[in-house]
Amino acid sequence: MATKPLVAVGQVTSTPDKEHNFRACAGLVREAAQRGACLIFLPEGFDYIGCNPAQTLSLAEGLDGPLMGRYAELARDCGVWLSLGGFHERGRDWETTRRIYNCHVLLDSTGHLVAAYRKTHLCDVELEGRVSMKESSFTNPGTEIVAPVSTPAGKLGLSICYDVRFPELSLALQRAGAEILTYPSAFTVHTGSAHWEVLLRARAIESQCYVVAAAQTGKNHEHRTSYGHSLVVDPWGAVVAQCHEGPGLCYAEIDLEYLHRIRREIPVQSHRRHDLYGTIGLVP
Description:
Distance between the termini: 54 Å
Helix content: 25-40%
Mean pLDDT: 95
Shape: globular
Radius of gyration: 18 Å
Structural class: alpha/beta
Number of helices: 8
Oligomer: single chain
Strand content: 25-35%
Low-confidence stretches: none
Largest sheet: 8 strands, mixed
Order of helices and strands: EHEHHEHEEEEEEHEHEEEEEEHH
């Protein structure tokens, strides 16, 4: 029987200190590589989490900057693929827009940048007295969905955090061939405790994909605490790996034979009525 690929999911507490964050993430990557993981996932804001929009903008870099260069070298040295979800990217339009992109970067085991997805759904949320976020005030929305990428663990569909609330994206990625959906995140405690696990399990069940969600945890700075609970969900909707409190790693084997068996046994994709969706209320 063929060995099932092992993936590792990192959980970190990023701060505004980029050097501290890199050392913490690099330590997890090296630990996971030694355990035999072929693909390692880091959460949104793995590079840093700023205290305010001004600091967030000031710390951002381009994909050709020194920090991404260090991660490319790390991937190469460890011989692993890296899913770096939620890099604060100064894009080519930085000089004109003065806004960044929330960019999910995929590096292969040679350090080559294989794909870059820019978050399309920005988190503008106002829960009175509890949560206030306005990502669009300093971030440009991405303009395209990136096709799933073949990796040593399976075909990977790229998303970021708030994207998990939009099943249209997960289903589009599944139709394009995704076997693993990934949602690197930095959920707040208030929304995470209510919605985190149920959203991720729902995305896995409806798409019949593995779902991998690396998360920020703990106190990032005096104004922010993240929910944590990084996890992996299988295509049946079962949580098969989950991080405990604090920084660390969890591991899961990706069983694509199991995935395709589930799709055969409950063939929801072939049962979809695309001829009907979007036609409610339309006059013939």
